[in-house]
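Q: Here's a chain of 160 amino acids. Please give me its 3D structure as tokens.
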Amino acid sequence: MTTLSDFTANTLAGQEQPLSAYDGKVVLVVNTASECGFTPQYQGLQELHTKYADDGFAVLGFPCNQFGGQEPGGAEEIGAFCEQNYGVTFPLFEKVDVNGDRAHPLFQWLRQERSGLMGSAIKWNFTKFLVGRDGTVRKRYGSTTAPEKIAADIEKALTD
């Protein structure tokens, strides 16, 4: 069985990060973009991260430029934008592909575990995957699902 712990990703600083660092935590994995109509969701994601961090929760952001070229910047630019505009303190990783032959293995797995409206493909920026403490995918949410709408599912996952 595959779990979140089986993957690694590079941080915005270019350091390889084993995702096993999040073992035992509830995690929300999100593909993000800085120039998207859903970009204001960064604020709600940060609020969730702050509210539940002490309970064992983390948001992991993965910038992606596959949808309308809405994440054109480099790592430093992405990090600065998120911090300055939305006060983001949750971990952000290097820009990745989430669909297609070059999709990051993490997103290949997430898509396989929970299909969406377009089958396994991710439709747009700010698709969210809730991963339980056991490292398995519990739920998938589309771009239009506001972060605050996920709070009850996070709370349930934190107590399971």
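Q: Can you summarize the key feature?
A: Strands lie at 8-10, 16-18, 26-32, 57-63, 128-131, 137-141.
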